[in-house]
Amino acid sequence: MGDLQQFPVEVFETHGRSAQVYHFGQEPIKVVVLDDYLPDPEAIIDLAVNGPSFAPNGPFYPGIRAPVPPSSFQTLLGPLSEILPRCFDYTGRAGLRESNFSLVTTPSEQLQPIQRLPHFDSLEYGRVAALLYLCQGENQGGTAFYRQRSTGFESVDAGRFSAFEAALNADVARLGLPDAAYIDENSPIYEMIGGVEARFNRMIVYLSSSLHCASIPKEFVFDPNPSTGRLTVNAFLGMD
Fold first, then answer.
1. pLDDT tens-digit profile of 187-226?
2. Which of 209, 189, 181 is CA-nearest to residue 107?
3. Which domains are delineated in the chain?
4. Of 177, 175, 173, 152, whose CA–CA distance to 164 is shortest?
5. What are phi and psi of 77, to 5 degrees?
6. What is the separation of C-alpha 146 from the centre of its chain, rounded to a whole number of angstroms?
7. How far is 85 from 23, CA to CA, in rounded Å?
8. Beta-sheet strand order (sheet of 29-34)
9. Within 10 Å of residue 219's Cβ, how many Cβ atoms?
10. What is the pTM for the complete model shown?
């Protein structure tokens, strides 16, 4: 997955940061990228290292998570106050739904079937995912976005869910479950439509309805240490 598969459709300044807006696919899927997001990213990493213990968090995420302290929410999410109305049609207050530190730690051969496929985060109208990469070094992958081949869906809302689920069940019955591996561009069920590389202190923002998945390269090291592993902050915001 190359870094930012196409040129941005818009670039603007917000809170002293340059925001780049990308469109992937045909719907299209909108992804906003802000590099050099935090003035002091090491302070947030210290919270992950010295805060609550990491633990598995449900069947979907291929790794471990720990809650982000509420005292850090404004530092992490305050700079998005202009992004949400401009790019995602927020007309009122944004409410925090969830925020965690996350580490990908599950080797390919241990992935559950649901973890081998792209997913959407929520059917809630307008919910936005904000993902901050705090990992350093090479081979950290990124986030890839997908189209379901049999329906053409690049996102799933409440109106599409039944058709999406029926198509996925039919595809798996016809083609079989995917191999125990992190998905890449070679899936017979999904087509990769774009992606963003992990980069230290890079924030990406997109609608939670977008079909997406962590892009994990074959050379990836599954490291459970937040100071050296693939540390991210994953936050979800909704319209209140």
1. 999 999 999 999 999 999 999 999 999 999 999 999 999 9
2. 181
3. 10-239 (2.60.120)
4. 152
5. -115, -15
6. 12
7. 17
8. 10-14, 17-24, 29-34, 202-207, 128-133, 231-239, 94-104, 63-67, 55-56
9. 8
10. 0.95
